[in-house]
Structure formats: structure tokens, C-alpha cells
Amino acid sequence: MTAEAQSESQPQQQLAGENVNNNQNVQQLKYLQFVQFATIHALMRCAILYSYAKERSGPLKTGVDTVEEAVKTVIGPVYDKFHQVPVELLKYVDRKVDESVSELDRHVPTNVKKVSTQARSVVTEVRRAGVVESASGLAKTVYSKYEPKAEAPPLFYGEEENTSLF
């Protein structure tokens, strides 16, 4: 295997290892999973964009490679030391949210919890069944059928019959 092929496969292996670690961390989060998912998706999009730009850099490709290696050399040790800090911070915030929700849950009356659960199930059922679209269409039909229409004023005082303008 050439040195270039080894250098290209090594970051891919590191990325695969980080994805496994990220997946384990995502499973540990209870409330803030969406933050980690959004971050992972954003980073993947940036990596794709960077790769695309690097491939099409033309005559600047050697300069880009040189700068990239210099940045890796300088930033690499710092990254190795601090790359888990955002994940640990997210876990900490997730634990605090869990504590707050648990504390709030103890103070909420059971009747409110039941109503909240019922409301969620109704919303879920409406979304699943697609009732929103059909109810919207029905409401538009009823409105157009019974919509008030403007009528012409009487031509003479005491005239009882009005003709419709529309």
C-alpha cells in the first residue's frame, strides 16, 4: 500500500471510530439528542463541501495540501486533548435538563399529566390519520357554501326585494 493510500485511509478509520463513539454518546442522551444529530449532520455536510472544493482546487491543490498538513500538525495535539469537551458538556446539560424535568414532574398534578398525555395522543392520531388536510378541505367547502354575499341596496324606499350582486 502506498504512503498516500495509507494517509487517506487513516482519517477514514479515525472518522469511523469517532462515528461509533458518537453513536454511543447519542444513545446516552435523553433530551438533547437532536443537538448532537444536528451537529453530526452539519459537520458531515461541511466535510463533503470541503472535499468537493479541495478536489476542484485545480492548480492550488498542492498549496491546499501543504496548508492542510500544517494545520493538522499544529491543531492535532489540541484536538486530541479537547475533542471530548463538547460531548461531555452536552451530557452535563442533558443531565441538568433531566433533573429539572424530574423536579417539575413531581410538582405537576396528576390530572394535568393525564390531560397532557391525552392531548399528545390526539395530536399524534390526527397527524397519522391525515385528518388535518381533510378537515381543512371540509372547512373551506362549508365556508364557501355559506359565505355571506353582498346584496344590492333597495332602489326605492320600501322596496322589499333585493337582487344579489353576485
Q: Could you characterize what this model shows?
A:
78% of the residues lie in helices and 0% in strands. By secondary structure, it is mainly α. The longest helix is centred in the first third of the chain and has 26 residues, at 3-28. It has 2 domains: 3-107, no CATH class; 109-145, no CATH class. InterPro entries: REF. It comes from Vicia faba (Broad bean). Belongs to the REF/SRPP family.
Name its key features:
6 helices; mainly alpha; disordered N terminus; 166 residues; 2 domains; single chain
Topology:
Layout: H1 3-28, H2 33-55, H3 61-82, H4 85-107, H5 110-129, H6 131-146
Number of discrete helical segments: 6
Please give the domain count. Answer: 2
Strand content: under 5%
Provide mean pLDDT, rounded.
76
**Shape from CA axes?**
flat
Count of distinct strands = 0
- Specify the helix fraction band: over 70%
Note the gap between the termini: 83 Å
What does the largest sheet look like? none
Low-pLDDT runs: 1-5
What is the N-to-C order of secondary-structure elements (H for helix, E for strand)?
A: HHHHHH
Please tell me how large the radius of gyration is: 31 Å
Helix/strand-derived class?
Answer: mainly alpha
Family: Belongs to the REF/SRPP family.
InterPro entries: REF
Organism: Vicia faba
Protein name: REF/SRPP-like protein
In short:
With 166 residues, this protein is mainly α.
